[in-house]
Write a structure and sequence with these properties.
Blueprint (H helix, E strand, L loop, with lengths): L1 H13 L22 E6 L13 E2 L8 E8 L10 H14 L26 E9 L16 E4 H15 L7 E7 L3 E4 L12 E7 L5 E5 L22 H16 L6 E2 L27 E3 L2 E3 L4 E3 L6 E3 L14 E6 L2 E2 L4 E7 L6 E4 L2 E3 L1 E5 L2 E5 L7 E3 L1 E5 L2 E4 L4 E3 L3 E2 L15 H23 L3 H6 L1 E8 L9 H9 L6 E11 L2 E11 L14 E14 L2 E8 L2 H7 L8
Parallel strand pairs: 3-4, 3-6, 5-7, 6-9, 16-25, 26-28, 27-31
Antiparallel strand pairs: 1-8, 2-10, 8-9, 11-12, 13-14, 15-17, 17-21, 18-19, 18-23, 20-21, 22-25, 23-24, 28-29, 29-30, 30-31
Helix pairs in contact: 1-5
Length: 570
């Protein structure tokens, strides 16, 4: 109960939605993934993310267009099969050639957007490759599996930066650099050797310390954990297994290049959710394929589609969409929560001819910006709590997969408070300070809804003081961060019910709910039923834009009284 109560109070200052995900994913690995690494392709047979859970937008950039570069790091004494590099170059060229078509997995990325609702386009350019003959450095991680070399991520980053400088290439938000290491070369996240190629992962993407978007592509052909055994481009060049995981990382980087854009509440990106899932195939055993790109066959895992009601892995995707007798489809909306009047952008397709938009069955005003975008506002009269967006046209109604969190809050400027005089402040400045602090608490709440733990941690003052109802359960900064780190163990969902501010203080009350536990239930988390565990209240004190104190109270009336507010009046 101690963990639940303190955890719940923490969530009152930055509340939490059920089972929000890690910032980066390493499905099937028990090692923690460094924050700059994401989209780890697990080895075959590893545990994969749960199905039926949508990707959620976390506010970061996407690659609206993309340009790819290949680095084949092959020093003297190391080899790649004849045709290995040219077949991979062919793949990048083919992906670029078929830009704008809906006939392969890359088209599925076009349902996702970045800041200011900039939609991803299937517009890829292949800028070329280089063979890097620089010698490998001394192994930075322990040798394993009989491999003669083991490279850490830091060593890979250093070489990528060297090649970029030598070639005169440019780091920016749309260029991606793939480094392909030679046969019998291992790699690990760091010098501990706890998470390594072929045993824990087959590839991963991330950003270098210098800001380059990159992917580590080990030589997967012939390896038990990363070779699916299909070679539509011929088994002699051993390129097809690497091409498969290259596609995984490429699609993930397009939708989540900085690891703060699109992933689900497990931390899984679009490629993670479909790893080793190929769907229907053609061709003979050993040479099967499921994609034809620019006339060449490839055996590529499918990619995740957020499109409701599909919520599944796809091989192709109809780009754009546009009315014309088709029912609407909602793929996402942003933000994930807000008050009445909050502007919301809904993304999807077939929005031309829309006749109605509702939230929680309350009709909203809206503007159809295009066949794939609607701008609307949270309508007056929407009840607080979680509700679904719906878009209707003459051919049908689409319902969002995720729920939108409607928050009812007010920031009040009144005398009294927790012993601090407000007489020196003008009424307008008190109102502004109160409103700003309420908004900070709600921003923390939305950050947790989105799974953005880093933002929440930034809101906590290093000298935070936590005063529990039971003094033995009080905590300092380290204790609070420990609770944050353990948040996934609890499986609780927290919903703010009241949020009232005065001066530095914000009184909050919230309901803690437990999720139904049924192993056979694969519905999206937001659609499951919850039961009330309890209701809790606290006063959160904000100074200089950070939470510096949390005082628990047994009920809302006591919290409001502590800041000088009469519960009956509000």
């Amino acid at each position: 109960m101690k963990r639940l109560l303190v955890f719940a109070c923490l969530l009152a200052l930055a509340a939490v939605a059920a089972l929000t995900g890690a910032l980066s994913s390493a499905q099937g690995s028990t090692a923690q993934v460094p924050s700059r690494i994401g989209g780890v392709v697990p080895v075959r047979g590893a545990q994969l993310p749960a199905a039926g859970i949508p990707l959620v937008y976390h506010g970061g950039p996407v690659m609206v267009t993309n340009t790819t570069y290949a680095i084949y790091w092959k020093p003297a004494g190391f080899s790649m099969a004849p045709g290995y590099d040219t077949t991979i170059n062919q793949f990048f060229t083919d992906v670029a050639h078929d830009s704008g078509l809906g006939s392969n997995v890359y088209a599925s990325d076009t349902q996702y957007h970045g800041p200011a609702t900039s939609m991803i386009t299937y517009n890829s350019t292949y800028a070329g490759s280089v063979t890097d003959t620089n010698p490998y450095p001394a192994s930075g991680c322990p040798l394993y599996n009989g491999l003669p070399v083991c490279l850490t991520d830091a060593q890979l980053q250093t070489e990528i930066d060297n090649v970029i400088a030598t070639q005169g290439w440019v780091r920016n938000a749309t260029n991606m650099f793939f480094v392909f290491t030679a046969q019998n070369v291992g790699s690990c996240f760091d010098s501990s050797g706890s998470t390594c190629a072929f045993t824990a992962y087959c590839a991963y993407h991330g950003t270098t310390n210098s800001g380059a978007i990159y992917a580590n592509q080990p030589y997967t052909g012939g390896t038990a954990g990363c070779d699916e055994g299909q070679y539509p481009n011929g088994s002699s060049n051993l390129a097809d297994p690497t091409i498969n995981v290259t596609s995984h990382e490429h699609n993930e980087a397009i939708t989540d290049p900085q690891l703060n854009a699109w992933y689900d509440n497990q931390g899984a990106e679009n490629g993670d959710k479909c790893a080793w899932n190929f769907g229907p195939v053609s061709g003979p055993a050993g040479g099967q394929y499921n994609q034809t790109i620019n006339g060449h066959h490839y055996f590529l895992q499918m990619e995740w589609s957020n499109t409701n009601p599909t919520l599944t892995c796809v091989q192709t995707y109809a780009i754009g969409g546009g009315g014309g007798g088709s029912a609407p489809v909602i793929s996402s909306f942003w933000p994930q929560g807000g008050r009445v009047g909050t502007t919301v952008v809904i993304q999807g397709k077939n929005f031309t001819g829309t006749t109605k938009v509702t939230l929680h069955n309350v009709t909203a005003t809206y503007t159809v910006n295009s066949s794939t975008r609607i701008t609307t506002r949270v309508p007056v009269g929407t009840p607080k709590g979680y509700g679904k967006w719906q878009v209707t046209n003459p051919s049908g109604t689409a319902t969002s997969a995720l729920s939108f969190l409607v928050i009812h809050s007010q920031a009040l400027a009144r005398g009294g408070g927790s012993g601090r005089s407000l007489s020196a402040l003008s009424p307008s400045s008190v109102r502004a300070m109160s409103q700003a602090n309420v908004e900070l608490v709600l921003r923390g709440y939305w950050a947790f809804v989105a799974g953005d733990l880093e933002t929440v941690a930034d809101m906590i003052d290093p000298d935070i003081e936590w005063i529990a109802v039971d003094p033995s359960e009080s905590a300092g900064h380290e204790g609070v961060l420990s609770i944050l780190a353990d948040r996934f163990e609890d499986g609780y969902r927290v919903e703010i019910e009241r949020c009232v501010g005065i001066g530095d203080d914000v009184a909050v009350s919230f309901r803690v709910a437990g999720e139904e536990r049924d192993a056979t239930d694969d519905r999206p988390l937001q659609t499951r039923r919850y039961f009330t565990v309890g209701r809790y209240s606290a006063v959160v004190t904000v100074r200089d834009g950070r939470v510096c104190r949390v005082q628990e109270y047994p009920h809302l009336g006591a919290a409001l009284e502590a800041i000088g507010i009469d519960e009956e009046e509000h």
